[in-house]
Amino acid sequence: MQEEERNRYKILIDRGNEVFERLAGQISNLNNRAIALLSLNLVFITLILTVILYLLDHGWQPSTNEQYILIFTIGLLVFSVGISYYIFKPTRYKEINVFEEERFNELKRMNEKGLLSNNLADIRAAYEFNLKKYKGRTAWFKISSIFHMGAFSILIYTLIINL
Questions:
Q1: Which are the contacts of 69, defined by CB distance < 8 A and separation ≥ 6?
Q2: For residues 90 and 8, which has the higher predicted lDDT (pLDDT)?
Q3: What confidence tens digit (pLDDT) does each residue in 69-84 have?
Q4: Is this prediction's pTM over 0.90?
Q5: Quick count: other Cβ atoms within 10 Å of Cβ 23?
Q6: Cβ–Cβ < 8 Å for 148, 77
């Protein structure tokens, strides 16, 4: 294998590892944001139930429309909690497998070009698999955030009208 070709493979592998690690960081960040959103939703559900009980204890007689609004708000939050939990639960991502016994022995038998080529292909396959999952989970996170913001807006509106 010529030096120029070897250097090209090494540069591609280095850049591939950088991009792969960046995506791993984004995945970790998404998990942290999902936990935060899940926590906020649970706090809002507790807040809504506390406010409803307080208002009912002080003589509030909700109209039919107000009952529908409250049910809709709680429903939005419950959907947001469900989606946040779906995002938060452990998901299998693809990793670059080098040290599994069988794979390691296979890699040891390869020549230099085959090893570099195989390594680059593994990085790309793992990245594409993880990116597809990440994009799907990000879309669900956006939907959950929209439900959360909708429920929060309705809650603020309802509190302003009734207090």
A1: 154, 158
A2: 8
A3: 888 988 998 899 888 8
A4: no
A5: 16
A6: yes
